[in-house]
Amino acid sequence: DGHASQKYILVSHAPDSDSWWNTIKNGIALAGDQMGVEVEYRNPPTGDLADMARIIEQAAASGPNGIITTLADYDVLSGPIKDAVASGVDVIIMNSGTPDQAREVGALMYVGQPEYDAGYAAGLRAKGDGVGSFLCVNHYINSPSSTQRCQGFADGLGIDLGNQMIDSGQDPAEIKNKVQAYLSANPNTDAVLTLGPTSADPTLLALDENGMAGDIYFGTFDLGDEIVKGIKAGVINWGIDQQPFLQAYLPVVVLTNYHRYGVLPGNNINSGPGFVTADGLEKVEAFAGEYR
Amino acid sequence: MNPIIEMRDIQKHFGSVIALAGVSVDVFAGECHCLLGDNGAGKSTFIKTMSGVHKPTAGEILFEGQPMNFANPRDAMDAGIATVHQHLAMIPLMSVSRNFFMGNEPVRKTLGIPFFDHEQANDVTMEEMRKMGINLRGPDQAVGTLSGGERQTVAIARAVYFGAKILILDEPTSALGVRQTANVLATIDKVRKQGIGVVFITHNVRHAMAVGDRFTVLNRGKTLGTAKRGEIKHEELQDMMAGGQEMVQLEGSLGGTV
Amino acid sequence: MNPIIEMRDIQKHFGSVIALAGVSVDVFAGECHCLLGDNGAGKSTFIKTMSGVHKPTAGEILFEGQPMNFANPRDAMDAGIATVHQHLAMIPLMSVSRNFFMGNEPVRKTLGIPFFDHEQANDVTMEEMRKMGINLRGPDQAVGTLSGGERQTVAIARAVYFGAKILILDEPTSALGVRQTANVLATIDKVRKQGIGVVFITHNVRHAMAVGDRFTVLNRGKTLGTAKRGEIKHEELQDMMAGGQEMVQLEGSLGGTV
Amino acid sequence: MSETQPTAAMADERIKQRSRLREAMIRPELGGIVGTIAVFTFFMLFAFDSGMFNSQGIMNWSQVSAQFMIIAVGACLLMIAGEFDLSVGSMIGFAGMMIAIFSVTLGWPVWMSILITFAICIALGAVNGFIVIRTGLPSFIVTLAFLFILRGFTIYFPQTIERKTIIGGIKDVAEGDWLAPVFGGKLFPGLFNWFGEIGIVDTFERGTRAGQPVVDGLPMLIVWALLLVVFGHVLLTKTRFGNWIYAAGGDAEAARNSGVPVARVKILMFMFTAFCATVFATCQVMEFGSAGADRGLLKEFEAIIAVVIGGALLTGGYGSVIGAALGALIFGVVQQGLFFAGVESSLFRVFLGVILLGAVILNTYIRRIITGEK
Amino acid sequence: MSETQPTAAMADERIKQRSRLREAMIRPELGGIVGTIAVFTFFMLFAFDSGMFNSQGIMNWSQVSAQFMIIAVGACLLMIAGEFDLSVGSMIGFAGMMIAIFSVTLGWPVWMSILITFAICIALGAVNGFIVIRTGLPSFIVTLAFLFILRGFTIYFPQTIERKTIIGGIKDVAEGDWLAPVFGGKLFPGLFNWFGEIGIVDTFERGTRAGQPVVDGLPMLIVWALLLVVFGHVLLTKTRFGNWIYAAGGDAEAARNSGVPVARVKILMFMFTAFCATVFATCQVMEFGSAGADRGLLKEFEAIIAVVIGGALLTGGYGSVIGAALGALIFGVVQQGLFFAGVESSLFRVFLGVILLGAVILNTYIRRIITGEK
Ligand SMILES: Nc1ncnc2c1ncn2[C@@H]1O[C@H](COP(=O)(O)OP(=O)(O)OP(=O)(O)O)[C@@H](O)[C@H]1O
Ligand SMILES: Nc1ncnc2c1ncn2[C@@H]1O[C@H](COP(=O)(O)OP(=O)(O)OP(=O)(O)O)[C@@H](O)[C@H]1O
Ligand SMILES: [Mg+2]
Ligand SMILES: [Mg+2]
User: Fold this and answer.
1) Closest Cα to atom 7, ligand 2: which residue?
2) Bridge partners for A110 per DSSP
3) Residue spans per domain, chain C
4) What is the structure's pLDDT at B258?
5) Whose C-alpha in A114, E82, E139, E287 is 20 to 30 A from the C-alpha of E210?
6) Buried b (16+ CB within 10 A) or exposed e, A80-98
7) Under CATH, which architecture does the E31-189+218-367 domain have?
């Protein structure tokens, strides 16, 4: 009945080894199956945003019905996105960027969690829990959104970020030992903030080894197997879940329905921040890293 | 007496180049067999098939009467063929003693594990080099610090030391001074008298005449024939090596000095 | 007549090695000055200071009476010194004609921009190589496809072609066959007759005697003296080259053949 | 003695005959040409109706290829001169960041920021070269050190100055600047407008730019790429300096003995590589309006891969700029084409690796025939 | 002729005297030794009271250094044999992922998963080596292709099989396995407990493990590192095979002519490098309990850097395993020490680059003295 003719492309800014984006891939795949549309996932192999701009141009050239993309850097990506919109492709912004920027580039809507705001909310929560200093374990310092998270957290706490953010690299042993090194050089640190499974998993081990597990305040962005276990064990106080599944799933559903029936929600959708704590973990546990 | 090695109708092609178009040579124990010929005649290629570096495209190798098929230089060495290649088989960054025993390391078993016996290697190296008239600073001196002539001497000393039955020398004297040359020729003479068959490649007819028992001249990948010492004169050999061409003319202007 | 180049008391040290301990040599136009000596005597080092490759540690170079200080090989070439180094200055991956003109590329200006004149380069190369008796497949044949002897000939042809006043040849015949050697000696003879000063390094006394006008023997970084043609006999020269040592003994066993 | 000695008829009977066709085909670029034909044929067959060959699609892979070309030309000449530059990627990030810091943070005029950045980067290239020449170290190590040093500063500067790793707003400050369009502008908008009118180029269907052509000009990026390729090709094959580049890479010692100023040639090539990286960075910054600390990651490898696919020899002394440009084209077309063809994106690297290996084996075979290497 | 010819007293008067002390000091490891002393002195002065040299701190940088050592030993022997492996990092990611897929996804016993992974990876190393030997291509290019291919599969496999790129839960399945502790366990817990009791090792003051020693055993990672260093050192310096490694790297042609089985030596070294990478991966997987597609990024460079800091020659034929181990130690201590010293962490790369450059220049100077290179 021609329904399968719709084709949507999701373009992310993540290097292809970044495990968190896997949930996104699964999200669009599931939505594609359920809606009976064709979906594709594209990303710059090294995470270079300039390469990503070319991928958006390429996606537009291949003539899909819609593009779902992140807005990791407004300067770099706004041009190609505007061109795509102008050439007749509907665009939904997901994950990074802000609702305002989404409107500006001519996107239909924004689905996601503004990074700075998420960090800020986390900071406020931590401040309420009595945190006065922290360590931000940044495993992808090259990317601007990582800094925004740490900066937001610091601002939420009402303190200066200063040297509290470390460039940890991506090797688990190095992350683990850097965290330990920092904490032993700065033993009065109140809290640890990690930015995803890549930095959270080794940090868990580091805290386990240096005996601070459960003692130091520990918050993290984004979920994963080990993070869920950490929350369950009471080592991690909370995980900020931006629900990436929704960021990928919803735009496909929205676009399909828009193209089939002309219906469109009247507002943006904030998929996060949702704080995942020890309460109600079962579903999260079952699907962490896959749909959560 | 049978020859130690007999090469029958050896051919060797490199892609579109025919380096050897059928060469037969044999070497007896205790003789010095000189291989002569122009640049590119195929001398080095020929002895490389003899020492297992190249596989002949066609032809047969009989070693002590048995057909042989050397898969690599090791095989040839194990059979008793020692070679000093034209482009030296010395590694500048390695010490003299490591170079000396390269590929033939002496081994001493400890707990059943075969360890490199450095002590023996060093002693032998110093002794052999002393015999050749070279005083090393020490066995761990890097070959890179030796002069060209000294390196050549190490290569020859090594080949002599390991050269069980046949010793092949590819233009060993071309870069050597008068004294070093005399040394090498004396060594060839000595080795031959020990009953080893020597294959000696040179462009210098005088050097060949000094130590050679038989002379084979190659020309463009083919043999021009083999002659015994005394059967052939200096001038004839010279003519054959140059392919017989226009030597008269050159000889004239340069006074028979080449 | 004044010498074209006069090297006065040249010293050259490499780190802890004293390669030249004060050597004086001069070269006149139209003469062939032979440099002889043992391995490691310092011959190559000496001519490298002459051709601007090395800076002497001490000593003076007078070129046509003027003190000269060659900063690099270019300077020496520009002054009129062409050199064929012992280890060839040929680049195997490049074509013969590019090699021939390396560092001396002919230039044709188009729109004021100096372009490499390939046509002229190719013509000259083919012509010069033909004169030396080598037929190339084409000027763009890579040097890597030539035999060692052919490469040597390219190097010499190039030096002769550019060799304005002085031509230095460092052991040009050591790897050559009889015919090629005769060719090179004939070329030296020809060049000398054109009024060019030739410096000829060799270990072969006969080659030296064939074309040399004067003979300087180096020994361990020092001169043993210079002799004119006719002033010195073959055997004397030979003795000097070997440092006078124990030649008698060797000569005896090898029959004066070295 | 007679002036013309009889020619020594060299070894004719010892060389098997080779066909003329084969002789004509055997050139350094052959690998690149064969690869290009293969790649286009492949995508014509498997991705023709994906939009890859409409005007927008062509512009897409052309721009990606042009980017690769810009750095490949520098890397190619440097590689032929016998050296390597692993700091190209970091240099791209560094140059972009410098322009951003000068123009946005410090508020200097954009033209001045660009010129000063060029000066700094070319000087850094010269430092690279100078260290390699003076110490005799392999350029792999020296430039690997610079890879880390430059990337470190590219993260450190904006981090300490602006507390972020991305600096935007360059488009705003570049408004009206005379030099910025040389890198970020587009040529012949009128012509492309006309193309749009007569239908050669598609037009936008809606939005603010409805009716305008989707490709509204020739990006300066492509112009720079073509200019650099032509410049590099002429320099290498038609000038005396080109001969010196080959000589320096073929055998530095021999070249030096023949009077080639090897040190100068190599240092100049390091500077030229830095120049190309800076052109790349400036075009990118002017087109996208921001500089990030992650720009240029792994670009050094992509440049080297393009050059090697294009038939150059990793160890120097052999190669061609045209080949490198074709290598860049192949690389760009494959990269974007796989997207167009809808291949699972994680397999992209697998394809890249396989193509690299195949291209290099083909090129090696060709080179051995040409140079008679053993 | 007499048997012993009079010795030609070679050029005695032409060699200036060199002091004995200087002779004794000049060894390939000297650069590494000097560097190690310098680095420790530096951090003793500037980070002593940061906890860097208490028992926990020592364990901290020891583990990081041990990781580097494991891959540096493989890279060192391979580099001395004249080749390079740029696929080490990808191999680490790939090996970890294979173990995870076999044991968690397919449910095979952990010991079997580990052994099969070792077999696969060593076979891949052999393929690398085989291609290098057969085609005569530079290993830089061949292993660069494998860098991409292996990383591609490391992402592709878990993605298609498990729908994720991090596979966890390995600790659970490894419970009770006989082979897993060989990579993930700790030795002598009793001893360290006793150390804690008598105060040699600090004890935890707060948290879940208050009262236990902060260092509760010697991680197998460190044991592997030391074993591999000893093995590599003995192999290289004390066996005939070691001589072949030097020979193969010094001049493959000459070595082959002397009867050294060069192809076998090189292929074995590629396999050994793959083995080291797999040890690294297995230790990591067993310690952290998960495998990720991004593991091992850039590790190939870190290995090469450690080896080069340790005095080996990039072009082969020269180097020492002890030196490489010291290089790894320097690398690890600097990396962690900068954190202890509180240096802005983005400057780490800058330091790394500068140290690399300094170490290499020092080593080159030393090597020239040893080998009489010009
Ligand atoms: N590996 C190879 N590949 C291709 N051609 C080769 C190879 N080895 C030798 N040749 C060619 O074979 C011919 C014979 O070469 P060879 O080295 O045997 O000559 P030669 O008699 O030793 O000469 P010289 O006196 O100059 O050493 C030459 O034309 C040479 O170019
Ligand atoms: N660049 C250098 N660095 C250190 N030592 C050197 C250098 N060049 C030459 N030497 C040394 O200087 C001495 C003279 O060397 P040179 O090459 O001049 O000898 P030669 O007379 O040309 O010998 P041959 O007849 O073997 O060519 C030798 O001991 C050599 O090892
Ligand atoms: Mg030969
Ligand atoms: Mg010499």
Assistant:
1) C14
2) A93
3) 5-92+164-231
4) 45
5) E287
6) bbbbbbbbbbbbbbbbbbb
7) Orthogonal Bundle (1.10)
- Rounded to whole angstroms, the Cα distance separating A82 from A78 reads 6
Report helix, strand and coil shares of chain C as percent, to nearest 5: 35, 30, 35
Nearest-5° angle of CA C234, CA C239, CA C245?
165
Q: Which amino acid is at D213?
A: P
| pLDDT averaged over every residue in chain B | 84
- Following DSSP, what letter does each residue of E151-204 receive, concatenated? HHHHHHHHHHHHS-SEE--HHHHHTT-SSHHHHH-EE-HHHHHHHHHHTSS-B-
Q: How far apart are CA E213 and CA E196, in angstroms?
A: 5
Task: Give the number of other CB atoms < 10 A from CB of residue A105.
Answer: 21
pLDDT single digits (tens) B25-83: 999 999 999 999 888 788 989 999 999 989 999 999 999 988 988 888 888 888 889 88
Tell me, what amino acid is at E181?
A: P
For chain D, the residue count is 374
Residue B19: which H helix or E strand, with range? strand B17-27
Taking the CB of residue B110, how many other CB atoms lie within 10 A of it?
A: 9
Kindly state the tokens that stand for A102: 């989404």
Q: Rounded to whole angstroms, how far apart are CA atoms D184 and D103?
A: 15
Count the neighbouring beta carbons within 10 Å of the beta carbon of residue B62. 16
Q: Which residues line ligand 2 (CB under 6 A)?
A: B 147-149, 177; C 14, 17, 19, 37, 39-45, 86; E 374
Within a 10 A sphere around the Cβ of B2, how many other Cβ atoms? 10
* CA distances (Å), origin D40, targets D33, D45, D328, D339: 11, 8, 13, 14
Check CB contact under 8 Å for C142 and D3. Answer: no
Task: Give residue-wise pLDDT tens across range D146-171.
Answer: 999 999 999 889 888 877 778 888 98
Report the greatest alpha carbon distance in chain B: 71
Q: What CATH topology corresponds to B5-92+164-231?
A: Rossmann fold (3.40.50)
Q: Tell how far CA E174 is from the center of its chain.
A: 26
**Nearest CA residue ID for atom 22, ligand 1:** B44
Chain D hits for A151, CB-CB cut-off 8 Å, are 163-164
**Residue in E47, E54, E58 with CA at minimum distance from that of residue E343:** E47
Question: Does residue B44's CB lie within 6 angstroms of at least one atom of ligand 1?
Answer: yes
Give the H/E segment covering residue D102: none
How many CB atoms within 10 Å of residue C176?
Answer: 23
User: Model-level pTM?
Assistant: 0.89
Q: D16: which chain B residues are within 8 Å (Cβ-Cβ)?
A: 16-18
**Alpha helices (runs of H) in D103-206, residue ranges in sequence order:** 110-135, 139-162, 170-174, 180-184, 189-198
